[in-house]
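job 3f2a | input accepted
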Amino acid sequence: MLRDVGSRDTEFIACIKFIRQKILEIAGVTNKKFSCIPMQGSGTFAVDASFQTVLPKEGARALVIENGAYGKRMVKICEAAGIACDVQSFREDRQVEPEVIDDALSGRTHYDLVAVVHSETSSGVINPVTEVGNIVKSRSPDSIFLVDAISSFGAVPLDLEASKIDVFISSANKCLQGVPGFAFVVARNELIDKCKGNSRTLSLDLYDQVKQLDKTSQFRFTPPTHSMLAFKQSLEEFEAEGGFAGRSKRYQENRAVLRQGMRELGFKELLDEKIAGYIISSYLYPKDPNFDFMDFYNRLNEKDLVIYPGKVLDIDCFRIGTIGDLHPEDMRILLKAIREVLADMNISVPVKN
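job 3f2a | predicted structure (353 res):
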């Protein structure tokens, strides 16, 4: 990232080709059936682009399955784009329930698209995408099945064909450990080829984007050159670590060390272990009069350790991530610091719940 490369330069064109092909390989699919479509911006930009591109401007209806902030964000995308949208909600500390989705799809309403989040990082829950996808295609074979895999792709198993996925979205700066700047959509070619003229906006048109990429291996508009050069390096590091299996193994080891250490400190997890992922973990606030989250957060921050506030609407909790270039030893350093901060705040260990 410490050097410039022109967006039309042959080196950068080769970088784009490499990234598009490598993403398909990691996803376990080929360019005969799927296309990788990089898109400037955050993961939300790519989710927005997907809804706007694959659904026609008039008459379409979507079903959004949500159990957290990122599912709710898809609802907002539909509302902003004028897409008719029904919502099937679940508690934020629970998984999506396939049998409920089966009931929702058994009525008279036809949905042109059904969407769900794979790893809902507002809580850390992993949703049963494969079961949901098979229900969608069983009940409504012509419905598009869209999956937000932004925080899971590259570390949490997801078989696109077995899950009947038509469109999935991820981002450079999550499990593949790039830097922010762009996201990508992997979509079935036969679907994208039908989407000309659907997009409500120029810049978020995935159809135009992929046709330009296929023709010239260039973006339509200025690409995030530095982010993409960094991502090429991150993909090489991903392979050096052992690919999907190696990355997943390290994240699971991080999660195991964190889980055991937080349990010893007395913290209670928001989620049942059966539905919790190893991307991010949510912990309930201790029931101690001396506990103040911002004080707790700031004290850890002063030690160069950054955690996340909770994103669950009605439960006081905070989150700790276990992805990125973090290792079990980093988890042990964090746990030691948490113990020290609790002592400084006059909170006894194990904490009260």
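job 3f2a | The radius of gyration is 21 Å.
job 3f2a | closed
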